[in-house]
Amino acid sequence: MGKKSVYADNAATTRISQSVLDAMMPYLTEQFGNPSGVYSTGRRAKRAIETARQKAALALGCEPSEIYFTSGGTESDNWALTGTYRALAPEGKKRIISTVIEHPAVLNTLEYLKTQGADIVLLPVKGNGRIDPEELKKAVTPDTALVSVMAANNETGVIQPVEEISRICAEHEVLFHTDAVQAVPHMHFELSYSGISMLSLSGHKLHAPKGTGILYIKNGISVPQILFGGAQENGLRPGTENVASIAGLGRALEDLFPDHENRNARISALRDRLAEGLLKNEGVIMNGDRENMLPGHCSISVKNADGEKLLLMLDLKGICASAGSACTSGDSEPSHVLKAMGVKPDYLNGSVRFTIDEYNDEEDIDYITETFSEILKKAAR
Ligand code: PLP
Q1: Cβ of 245 below 6 Å from ligand 1
Q2: Tens digit of pLDDT for each residue in 9-36?
Q3: CA 119: distance to chain centroid?
Q4: Edge to edge, what strands does the sheet with 284-286 contain?
Q5: Do 131 and 99 form a contact (C-beta atoms < 8 A)?
Q6: Which terminus of the chain is more solvent-facing, meaning fewer CB atoms within 10 Å of its CB: N or C?
Q7: What is the structure's pLDDT at 269?
Q8: What's the CA-to-centroid distance between 241 and ligand 1, angstroms?
Q9: Quick check: CB of 174 below 6 Å from ligand 1?
Q10: Is the pTM of this model over 0.85?
Q11: How far, in whole angstroms, is CA 341 from its chain's centroid?
C-alpha cells in the first residue's frame, strides 16, 4: 500500500473551508480598518462583525444581542465560570457542579475558582460516558451558583443529556452553562427555546480559524467581564475585534446548517465503516455510548498497547489521529475521561481517537483500517 495522507483529527482542529477563507479575505486586505473607526473602512469592518453576529444568532436560534465574540472555547469557558462565580459568590452561592470528564478549559478554571473559595462538585460518569441526572439532582443545593456540563465530550464524542440537565437546572433556578465546542459542529441548538443560560463554542472546530469563538449569554443574565479594557462587545469583552476571523466564524456557522442532517448522516456512515474495520482486530474496543455519540468520533482502545506508539506508526503512514484530546496528548498520563468511564487498566494506555468530517471519504477510511491492521500485526510479532 502506498503512502497516502489522511487527516482524521477533526475534533482537534479543522481546515479552513474555501467559503470561510473567501469571507475573511477582504478584512485581511483592503478592509483592514479598526471597527471602532469612524471612516469607511472601519465602518465596513464593524458591519462585518454585526453581520457575523446575526448569522451566528440565526444558526444557534437566539438573538444577536446574546452573542459575544471571544478568542475561542477556552476563553468562553473561563468567562462563563469565573464571571458567574464572581457575580453569585457574594450572595453566598458558591457551589459549582460540573463533571469529571470536562475539558481542561473547564477543569482548570474550576481548580482556580476553588482557590477563590468555590465549592466544586464533579459528577462521575457511567461506563457509557454519560452522567446520571439523578446524581445532579442530589448535588444541587440552595447555594448552587452554576451547573456546567459539556454537551459532548472531546475524546469520546459522547453526548450528555443536555435537555434533562436544563430541566433540572430550571426547576432549581440554577444557571446552566454548556461547553458545546465539540457539539456545535454536529448538533442543532435552538437556544432561545432551551434552558441553556450560557454556551461556549470555538471556530476552529467548524472550519473557521483558530483563536475565535463565542460565548452565548441568555438575555437577562448578568455575567461580569473577566477582561478589562475598551467598550467592545457591549463593554463586556474588550479588545480590538478579530474582524476577519469573526467574519469567517459567521460564515462557517451559516454554512453548517442548511445541509446539517445530510452532512451528519454522511459523516456517521464513514465513522461506522471505520469502527467496523477497526473492531475486526483482536483486542480492540470502542469507547463510549454509540447510541449517544457525535457522528464523527471513533475512540478506540487496544489491549496492552501504547497509544503514543500507535500514533507515531500511523503518522509514518500519513495518518493524523490523536491519543485523546489535543490538549492532553504529549503528557503520558492515561486519559482522565477513559479512566472516569472505568476503562480497564490494560486498555487505558492504548487509546487512539479518530475524528472524521465531511472532507474524508471511503478511500480514507479503508486506508486507515487496512493500515491499522498492519500496524497491529507488526506490533504483535
Ligand atoms: N472545550 C472542548 C470540549 C474542546 O474540545 C476544546 C478544544 O479542544 C476547548 C474547549 C478549547 O477550545 P479552544 O481551542 O478554542 O480554546
Answers
A1: no
A2: 999 999 999 999 999 999 999 999 999 9
A3: 25
A4: 284-286, 297-302, 351-355
A5: yes
A6: C
A7: 98
A8: 20
A9: no
A10: yes
A11: 19
Q: Domains of the chain, with CATH numbers?
A: 6-16+260-380 (3.90.1150.10), 18-256 (3.40.640.10)
327 tagged catalytic: yes
pLDDT tens, 261-280? 999 999 999 999 999 999 99
Assess contact for 232 and 50: CB atoms under 8 A. no
For residues 371 and 82, give the distance between their C-alpha atoms in angstroms, rounded to a whole number: 45
Residue located via cell numbers 446520571: 132
Atom 5 (ligand 1): residue with closest C-alpha? 154
